[in-house]
Amino acid sequence: MLVKKKMLLLLAGTCFSVFNQTAQADGLADLKAALTRLPGQTPMKAVVEAKTWSRQGEGKDAEEQNGQASISIDDSPRGLQLLYSKDLLTRLETEERAKEKDPKAKTPTIAAIREVNSSELRPLVSAVGNLSRILEKAIFKSEKTDATYNGKPARLLSFEIPVEKLSEKDRKYVKKFEGSLDVWIGPDGIPLASRMHQAISGRAFVVISFETKNEEELVYGVSGDRLVVTRKESKNSGSGAGEKGEMRVIKTLQVQS
Questions:
Q1: Rounded to 5 degrees, what are φ and ψ at 131?
Q2: What is the Cα–Cα distance from 208 to 13, expressed in whole angstroms?
Q3: How confident is the model at residue 41 (pLDDT cuts 50, 70, 90)?
Q4: Cα gap 233→215, rounded to integer Å
């Protein structure tokens, strides 16, 4: 009788474990299914603004710089078109001339405009591809079904980012790597937000030790059949070879009707 009870308990535990794993996998399946429903073919016009802040060095020798730039975009069957205002172009010209006269001159607009070029904008106006590629290498860890986002019910999917995300060349110098990804999804599986964290330390050229930390927080929205990023905040810090630096970039996207 005792043996039979133990077998029943073992069987019940096994069934619960299988049920729990299946329940956890539902959120990931819902997310992937939602991404396939958003092919991103709807034409869209939007305004994208980038605000940047950077600091190089420490103490009284630290150099800080703030920048801001905004552009209009039009993504249609013709392709992705970027529109730079005359004011923005004038500011860029002024900074370029100042840089020619003084190599140490600050160029905040030039720094900000790098954040709104075509390669940086594509993941904002059509976010499915970038998120799908990250999920391909991410290792699913858990699902929290009673989470909230902005006060609304959500499911929280947690992943581990393996070191294989880095290129083979970069991995040669890495001694320690930690990576994680959290994705909040709604009842329909559509992503609401995501947060990715990476910490890397290693040694390059035998004598140069380095450490870097990267954090990225995205807020998603839907425009037609597009998944878009309405807000992206990136924080990067690093030290090595006696140097230390930090950078923060906030991008916002406003869809135009």
A1: -65, -40
A2: 51
A3: very high
A4: 8
* H or E segment to which residue 179 belongs: strand 174-185
104-140 pLDDT, tens digit per residue, is 888 999 999 999 988 899 999 999 999 999 999 999 9
Beta bridge partners of 236: 214, 247
100 phi, psi to nearest 5 deg: -65, -35
Q: Does the pLDDT value for residue 68 go beyond 90?
A: yes
Query: Where along the chain do its domains lie?
Result: 41-256
Report whether pLDDT(170) > 60. Answer: yes
Share of the chain residues as helix, strand and coil, in percent rounded to the nearest 5 = 35, 50, 20
- Measured in residues, the chain has a length of 257
Integer Cα distance of 15 and 238 in angstroms:
47
CA distance 103 to 109: 15
| Tokens, residue 169 | 């060349």
